[in-house]
Amino acid sequence: MTITVKDYTRHIKNREAEMRYLGNKTKLLNFIDFVIQKYDIKGHVFSDLFAGTGSVGDFFKHKYTVLANDFMYYSYIFNSSKILNDKRPVFDVFQKKYSIDVFHWLNQKTFKPNEHYFIYNNYTPKGGRMFFTEENGLKIDGIRITIEELYIDKIISENEYYFLLASLLESVTKVSNTSGTYEAFFKFWESRASKTFLIEPIEFNLTKFNTSNKVFNTDSNELIRNIEGDILYLDPPYSVTQYSSAYHMLETLAKYDFPTIKGVGGKRDKGKCVSLYSRKQYALEQFEDLFRQAKFKHILISYSNQSIVPLDDLVSLAKLFAVNGKINVEELKYKEYQNHRSSNKSNGEKLKEVIIYFEKETSFAKSPLNYSGSKDTLLPEIIKELPKHVGTFVDVLGGAFNVGANVVATNKVIYNENNKYIYGIIKWLMVNDSKQIIKSIEKVINEFKLYKRAEKEYYALRDYYNNNISSYLHLYTLHMYGFQNMIRFNNSQQFNTPIGVAGYSDDIKNRIINFKPKTKKYELINKCYTKFQWEKYPLDTIFYFDPPYFITSAAYNDGKRGMNGWNGESEVELLSIISKINQLGYKFILSNLLYHKGKTNHILIDWIHEHNFKVVQAGTSGWRYTKNEVLIKNF
Ligand SMILES: C[S@@+](CC[C@H](N)C(=O)[O-])C[C@H]1O[C@@H](n2cnc3c(N)ncnc32)[C@H](O)[C@@H]1O
Question: What span, in angstroms and rounded, lies between the C-alpha atoms of 219 and 231?
């Protein structure tokens, strides 16, 4: 659907002049707000993960707690000045000492160059480049160094320091002899570059801000694992241009760290700031990872039809993570703005800027099958450790299917379980309509007059199951009332779990209703994992193993549950199979314990060291004796 911002009556006056910055959203702020209003998006915490000049956070700071991030340090400075202030800092210590406006004081200072004047010596004709005139280069260096000295001498606070640096950076863009970025300079002096440099206070909204606002300076895909909130705004680079290359000058001026520089543009090394969003073969999986890891209900993405990843591909990906697969694409009509971008064409196609909005499916569905060793409480930690791209996810020792069912894979999820009873129940739960399941369970409960701790009734159902009908409906119903929900059989395949204390409840009913694999395409397998032909799986498969724990005495270790016991031999066999999977080039994650109640799993620890696998603490599980769970992985 095409909308125009004209339709949107509440027009907040934008106080900011647009800074020359690729993808600057100053002109689109009302459009973002329009989408928020249109879809009645509610929330308290708003995060801008690719914050650039900080214009978005600044615009929304009066409404939300803002978390802003960008991996460029100059952006950290812009964001710190804008979203952590509601007025210009007062410079009281400075004022007391000098009784003059700090900007005026800086502008009237004169400077004498020396070999440490980095801009003057490298980016003016003095250094063979024409980014700035010599006169301006000298002033820029002098002011940059003075700001640092004021801060070191405690004449300005940290907040004042960032404010002055942000002001310096923005002012510099006004006298740069370039077309906007710093890849190259003009071979003549453009009129803006001939103006005398003046540091002017950076403009931002003088509206209230929340003191819990935070500015980060890291990779967004790392940060996303450690923050949460309500609205996630994503404005990643659209093109192959690396910001660390285009704005190397701002980075060097912000850090003033005397980097080694190269080439005509005098660029610093990009360091860690190489954006995979700007690389065609990686961009889509960066998004996949952000979507999967986001602990935000509402996701808004600024995007265009000229972006590296085709718009349709991004929409198809987003569908996998959205509630009911529903995605909204709002298109902005540029006519309304009459700005330079309206004439921007590529491949003959007119630039179309959009906001993709969707509600993310953030809840975890707990399996309706109560199962010893269930990973439902550790799901957040397991999901966090997934790689950026998950093509196929195999829950190799699937149990109650808590893990596989909650993973979004772009291709499919596979559940495998060797125990035919457990497999049978999961399959029965998956293939039947949940309302029908509930109806039939309630019918059995009524027929047998079951209630919690009702012994006679429970044993009557157990006999009925063992002697007459071995249906999964009856077995599943029994497990709800049985001792510790165990599904245990004797050697003659008779279900022999004694009565327990629990039973059918609203919780179980809701779990039956809500339990649906998050990945549409899934497959259920009932075989011994040792029989898997691993090499048949595509290379972007992740194998997840949640075996019985060798050093605990979980019920399934006693060999009485239709499964062979889990002993040292089983442990060695599992580890050697995982070594093979690793050798074949697949990624794996293994859940386990290294230590428990004074015992140490030496076999496992030696194996981890031998292969140099990564161990991640995954929290605790279990209610009687807590277990310190770890995830072992090869990526
Ligand atoms: C389109 S610009 C954002 C513009 C911003 N909304 C504004 O109005 O100024 C994209 C930003 O993403 C940053 N960026 C690119 N890859 C990143 C990554 N992996 N992590 C964090 N920031 C990244 C770039 O430094 C750049 O500032």
Answer: 19
**Residue 410, amino acid:** T
Length of the chain (residues): 635
Q: What is the pLDDT of residue 565?
A: 73
**Tokens 């004047």 -> residue:** 117
- Token pair of 7, please? 């339709």
Per-residue confidence (pLDDT) for residue 4, from 0 to 100? 41
Please give the structure tokens belonging to residue 373: 């060793």
Q: Is 94's C-beta closer than 6 angstroms to any atom of ligand 1? A: no
Q: Is 233 exposed, middle or buried, given 0-12, 13-18 or 19+ CB atoms closer than 10 A?
A: buried
| Res 480: pLDDT | 96
Q: Which pLDDT value is given to residue 553?
A: 59
CA–CA distance, 114 with 201 (Å, rounded to integer)? 27
For 331, phi then psi, to 5°, come to -105, 140
Residue with tokens 């990872």: 289
- pLDDT, position 300: 98
Which parts of the chain register pLDDT below 70? 1-17, 334-349, 553-564
Which helix (H) or strand (E) element contains residue 169? helix 158-173
Report angle CA 594, 597, 598 to the nearest 5 degrees.
80
CA of 523 to the centre of ligand 1 (A): 39
**CA angle, corner 107, sides to 101 and 110, nearest 5?**
125
Give whole-number Cα distances, 243 to 50, 57, 81, 215, 591, in Å: 11, 19, 20, 19, 39
Cα(213) to ligand 1 centroid in Å equals: 18
Instruction: Determine phi and psi for 253, rounding to 5 degrees.
Output: -70, -40
3-state secondary structure of 630: strand
Whole-prediction pTM: 0.93
Give the per-residue pLDDT at 461: 97
Atom of ligand 1 nearest to the CA of 50: 12
